[in-house]
Amino acid sequence: MRWDGQRADETEAEQALLGLSGLIRSVRSPDFSGVTFHEVRARSVLNKMPKTSSMPFHWTVNPYRGCSHACTYCLSGETAILMADGRTKPLADLAVGDEIYGTYSEQGRRRYVRTHVLAHWSTVKPAYRVTLEDGTELVASGDHRFLTDRGWKHVTGSRFGAAQRPHLTTRNRLVGTGPFPPAPEDGPEYRVGYLCGVLTDEGEAAPEHRFRLASPDREMLRRAKEYLTTFGVGVDESVSPPGVGARRPGGAAEQSGQAALAELFQLPVQPTIAWQKGFLAGVFDTRGGRSRTGLWLTGLDPDTAESVRLALTRLVFRHTVADGGRTIRLSGGVEEHLRFFHTVDPAAGRKRMIDGAAVRSVPGLGVAAVEPTGLELPLFDITTGTGDFIANGVVSHNCFARKSHTYLDFDSGLDFDTQVVVKVNAPEVLAAQLRKPSWAREHVAMGTNTDPYQRAEGRYQLMPGIIRALAGSGTPFSILTKGTVLTRDLPLLESVSADVSVGLGVSIALLDRELQRRLEPGTPSPQARLELVRRAAQAGLPCGVMVAPVLPWLTDSMEALDGILGAVADAGATGVTVLPLHLRPGAREWFLKWLGTHHPELVPRYRELYAGGSYVNRHYRTWLGERVARLLRRHGLDQGGPGHRDGGGGAVPAQRAPEHDTSVGGDQLSLL
């Protein structure tokens, strides 16, 4: 291979990350088409996990940043920008002229105001990851500024010297509305709920139409007509307010039609969450409002008020009842109002505006960590009339990156699969760090951020030195990989396992070779990874398999699961962890784009499964858990596995669900 690439002082800037600390050279090779390797001398390779991490171990070693496997799961997402109608749009999709929200200062108090995008472009800069207490991740340049409770702060800076400037620390809290919840799925239950909220039943007293739309609002009328059409019901706009269904009086046909409408749009005894979201949106569009002092629903009859109260309680919105039960007010400020708008999605954009509301900090926006990604990334920049905008729920200036995606907390970012940083001195630096008296020989997990046995390891051969350094210091360790380059080091691992606890884990998502090529281009075949498990078992090394991610309706059939678990058992795996697909913000948009290209019929079903957040819903997890449990027993894989959280069992620690993801709690599927 031609590894005598460009040094940092050469002129081909597109190959050299000149802002990368410790850069020696940037290299391209015909064997890795489209991939640039940036060789650096690192000052540290032993990394402590942030307190907000969902992983059960505390230390990692990552000789590489970025990955030459080029998996579909490792693609970046989009940063949500608050638009003037209270909805959101990805930053990359903004256009000059779009109306969004910024802020202005009035008598020492900052408030939200509508503004316009004046310019939109992208650039490339060294990127940093800002992690907030609620788990939100923001990727931006070091020069980017966020508004904090102590004023504007750059992402990076120094207290002294030429780089001295205000910058983020873990003592700062960002200000803004907080993260935006996903919009509801526009399905049949939501639509029926919405129509129940906007229709009035005038009973036998109505001279023509028993059912009327409760408001002539144009946006509400447009949505109601669209929804009614899907149920084969017409709207009569010749009367005011508009009538629904056939005119009265009429014969038996008209009467039966009115009865059918009454049955369709009656309040259900046990409404679904989707129905309740639609219902709240409809009631707000027709009988709701918002001002600086609050958000309310008024003029409610007893049945409607009770349904509203139950829906708000189920969706965890605090509220008060007034006016003899005819008025319900939402508790909290503009942050709760936006959460309501994004959760139920009313049609009336004019009612969703938050002009003049005070900007403040909310729980969860404290800075937990600021870390370099080790990469230069394309960063998006916009110019607005106010000089700022609301991105991912915080007030922001300057360049912004598409938010980096993590798959099972595996770091990645834009160009993750084409820009790989290689810490060429990793073995020596690690050995020095492990010799420090303060090192307590805690378990070290490798493969948690990037695959240490990706294809580039065949050239750089960093892992043998890292293994010897860990074993020589008496440090137990585990390795998770999908790379068969690990086969090279099996004799060494077998040797050091006599002195320290060693655990191996191999990731195998599926056996379908064609699907694997589309999802994980550049990775070894499933058959090659099974052979790696077999060889590890023959060497006497405990080797678990992570069957992840399981893709709903693609790899979760009894036949597919039975096939892969049977093959894993035959290969001699000591245990199995099964995890369904995890779609954090960023992964969702890109994976659904892939799904829409290859399996468009599944996109609505995936949106429903992941409507509650990054994790698949509880019903699917329970269903998959029961199916997998039977198969694990069938293949003798239910007697222990790779999930030893203390790392002492010689296996790969299993992931636990993030504490901030209330949609899952502690029930992330892990079958051992």
Q: Give Rg in angstroms.
A: 28 Å
Question: What is the count of β-strands?
Answer: 31
Main-sheet strand order equals 4-5-27-28-29-30-31
Helix content: 25-40%
Beta-strand portion reads 15-25%
Structural class: alpha+beta
Low-pLDDT runs of 5+ residues are: 1-19, 70-77, 251-257, 399-417, 640-672
Mean pLDDT comes to 79
Question: Please, could you describe this protein's structure?
Answer:
The chain has 672 residues and is of the alpha+beta class. It contains 16 helices and 31 strands. α1 (188-198) runs parallel beside α4, α4 (273-287) packs across α5 (302-314) and α12 runs parallel beside α13. A hairpin with a 2-residue loop joins β12 (145-148) and β13 (151-154). Mean pLDDT is 79; it is low at 1-19, 70-77, 251-257, 399-417 and 640-672. The two termini are 43 Å apart. The longest helix has 17 residues, at 618-634. The strands form 8 sheets. A 7-stranded mixed beta sheet has the order 4-5-27-28-29-30-31. Strands 1-2-3-26-6 form a 5-stranded mixed beta sheet, with no helix packed on it. Strands 9, 10, 11, 22 and 25 form a 5-stranded antiparallel beta sheet that branches.
